[in-house]
Structure formats: C-alpha cells, structure tokens
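Before drawing any conclusions, I needed to go through one protein's amino acid sequence and its backbone structure tokens, quoted below without any editing.
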Amino acid sequence: MVFILCISIGIYLFCFGYSVSIGPIAWLYNAEILPDKGVSIATICNWLSVIIITLLFPVVNASIGAAPIFYFFSFTCIACLIFVFILIRETKGLNKRAISSIFYNESAESETIEDLTFE
C-alpha cells in the first residue's frame, strides 16, 4: 500500500512539474514562430507521436522490460534539454514582427529589436 501511495505521489508531482515548466512550451513556441499551417502540421506530428508511443509501449515493455524504455526516455529528455539550451531562441517580450525577423532572417529596415519589443 505504501508503494502505491509513493508511486501515486510521484506521478502527481511529475504531472505538476511538467505542466508548469516544459509542458506548454511546445504549444506556445510553435504558435509564436510558425504560421497557421505550420502550427497545424506541428500539432498533427505531436499527436501522432503520442499515439505511436502509447501503442508501442506495452509491446516494447513486454519484450525488453520497463527499465531500458525509461533509460531511453531519460536520454531523450537530456538530449532535448541540450537542444533547447543551444538552439532555441528567446522570444519573451517580442512582437510577431520581431520574432519573424529573428527566425526568417528578415531585416527590419528602420527598426531595431528594442523598437519591436513590448513595453
């Protein structure tokens, strides 16, 4: 009974931590940098990935066990963390035009980044 309680508390803490940290980033970042069609494609890819992982998890778990799967997930999370710190650009406080100029190498001819930020 104590084991189940500890597992339940761990799951709730993970869900809380995920929902207030990295969870919404994929949705917010896509909405900021992609056009409407790109957001739709990103959403489809996200849901297809979730479906594939959900359907394959029981099969892989039965064949190789849970530990290698979660080591793989841990490695993937670490790789994503490194990717975010190295390649993802900050868009806080920038309007749509400034974000567009950052990601699509468009030059704002008469405006600087300071002119394009929100006050």
